[in-house]
Structure formats: C-alpha cells, structure tokens
Task: structure prediction
Amino acid sequence: MSLLSIKNLLKRYASATGEMTEIVRIASFQLSAGEQALLRGESGSGKSTLLNLIAGIVAADEGEIVIDGVDICGLSESGRDARRARSLGYVFQNFNLLDGYSCIENVELGMSFGSGVDRSLARHLLERVGLGNRLDYRPDQLSQGQKQRVAIARALANHPKIVLADEPTGNLDPSNAKTALELIQSLCRENEAALLLVSHDASLASSFETVIDLEELNETKHGTEAIS
Ligand code: ADP
Ligand code: MG
Result:
C-alpha cells in the first residue's frame, strides 16, 4: 500500500476577476514509504498549492488524499492540523523560522505540536546538519544556508513519515543549495521518511530516482469557470 495516495484531487481558486480557476487537477498519484520523488513544474503550475493540500494547510474541493491509511480530505481543519504535526515535515523556500527563538527552540517548537519536546533529539538533529555550535543563535544571526539547515532539522523533528519540501534550494547560492539538498535526502533516508520535493529547477532531476512533471500529472485543467 502506498504511504501517500491521491485520487481525483481538485482545487480551485478565485482569480482576481472572480472567476474560479482550476489550480490542481490530479487523477492519480502515489508515493511509497521511503521513496524520494521530485515533482517538477513551472512557476504558477500549482506546486505549492499541491503541497499545502497534502499537508492539510488548505482544503481540497474534491478528491482523496490518503496518508498512511487516513483520507485527510475527510478531516476537520483541526484534525488535519493534528495529523500534519504527527506525520509530516515541511521545508519551505523561505525557511519559515520564528525570529524570536533560537535554533534549538525553533526545532523544539515544531516538536511541541507533534511528538513532544525532546531536547536531546533537537540537539542531535542540529548537530547532524552541522549547527551544533549554533544551538542558541537566533535566525537573524544565521546565514541563509544555515537557516535552511535549521528548517531541515525541524522538518525531521517529529519522526515524519513524509517530508514535503517546497523549492528548498530556491533562496540559496549553488554551494548551499547542494548541501541543503544532500542533507534533506540523507536525513530522510536515515529517518526512513519519504520525500516529495517540488521545484521549477530541472537540474535537480539527476539527484532523484523518481522525477514527475507536474504538467503531465495535472489532468487538463479547465482554465476558467464562471461562478454560478
Ligand atoms: P507554484 O508553487 O507552482 O509557483 P502556486 O501553487 O503557488 O504555484 O500557485 C498556482 C496558481 O494558484 C497561481 O496562479 C496562483 O496565483 C494561484 N493561487 C495560489 N494560491 C492562491 C490563493 N490563496 N488564492 C487565489 N489564487 C491562488
Ligand atoms: Mg510555489
């Protein structure tokens, strides 16, 4: 059985002129436990929307998103929040760290919504991403590459079954981008988490066994539909 299984997923958003536009329309998509997949798509093709649907941050209009046997589309918002905290890690392009908190507190905050604060695990994860000597630094005292490494440590903090990564190398220089990608991939392997990484950057394809083009995955989207 797949760890993640999507069927007939549909998400529409209202455009600036008020017409409903189909942003995501996927007939079928599966991710196995421990699999690492790159989902490639141009800017505006719905990558972030798809990850937010899988994470349960936004609700689908139609379809199923079954994660580890549970269809999150059938859950309330608080139910989706609880599942996200327990089974998903999320790495964002812009890191999304909390400025008022140190590195280790950022990782621990992630834990407090999920499996519970475990300071020694938080320290271990930060050491693993090369920040053992920065535990008490705040995000504004870190470089871009270091910030993304904190976010990677945080994404693994709740023993996730799936890590979602949204253009995680997009705001980094080539050297830091390479390090971040290697860390995400090796930490997911070590922790037996599956990885679904979305990017517009086709050069990442050589690092993945599974590469999917979102344009091919998206069924023909009906451009616009008038609101009835
Ligand atoms: P990508 O991550 O591939 O660049 P997004 O998922 O961010 O694409 O956006 C896909 C499309 O959905 C864009 O045209 C965007 O304007 C639209 N969109 C995203 N979020 C919203 C929203 N909250 N309300 C209305 N339109 C949105
Ligand atoms: Mg995006």
Observations:
- Confidence is low (pLDDT under 50) at residues 224-228.
- Residues 57 and 144 are 25 Å apart (CA to CA).
- Strands lie at 4-14, 20-31, 36-40, 62-67, 70-71, 88-91, 162-166, 194-199, 210-213.
- The first helix runs from residue 47 to 55.
